Amino acid sequence: MTKLIGLTGGIATGKSTVSNLLRLSGYPVIDADQVVRQLQTAHSKGLERLTAVFGSGILNADQTLNRQALGSLVFSDQTKLAKLNMIMQPLIREEIWRQVKNYQKQQIPYVILDAPLLFEENYTDECDLVVVVTTDHQIQVQRLIKRNGYSQTEAEQRIDSQIPLAKKKRLADIVIDNNGSKEELKRQVAGLIDQMHNNKL
After folding, report:
1. Which first-to-last residue range defines the signal peptide (predicted)?
2. Would the pLDDT of 198 be above 90?
3. 16 assigned binding-site residue
């Protein structure tokens, strides 16, 4: 039987690093962010729906999505953010479960669902186990500013658009704390991989 492990955290907590370590260890990863990008390519159904609601101002000159423009629009307005999710989530969910079913047919023992909105969009209902990557709020803010070039306000808006990490930790089966070094993070992931390898999850 295929077990689906939900992997989430807050933005800039190090979830992608954990996801990559799991992938490098041979475990298939369904990356929700990658699914979103596929669904928002030029002239795609997803992008056409977004443009119909938010206007052509979210497009680059070559008709591809300007993610910064869309982000500035929705993360400063909860109503617009809700509209974005209403448009995209049915398409995202359909593609994710298509991939899950494909792995189930192959009888893959463990599949990772890497999804920032794992709790927000109730993907946890279908997961056998939930892993949450956490870090302190100020570290999260500083990483976002450094990584994405956001202002303090922009970083805070994006963090506030998600369920608080403290709540996610309470709902998790396994918590990976990413306040330390990369080596410490790798040690925690290695422990998770060991449990999977020995079918202890």
Report:
1. none
2. no
3. yes
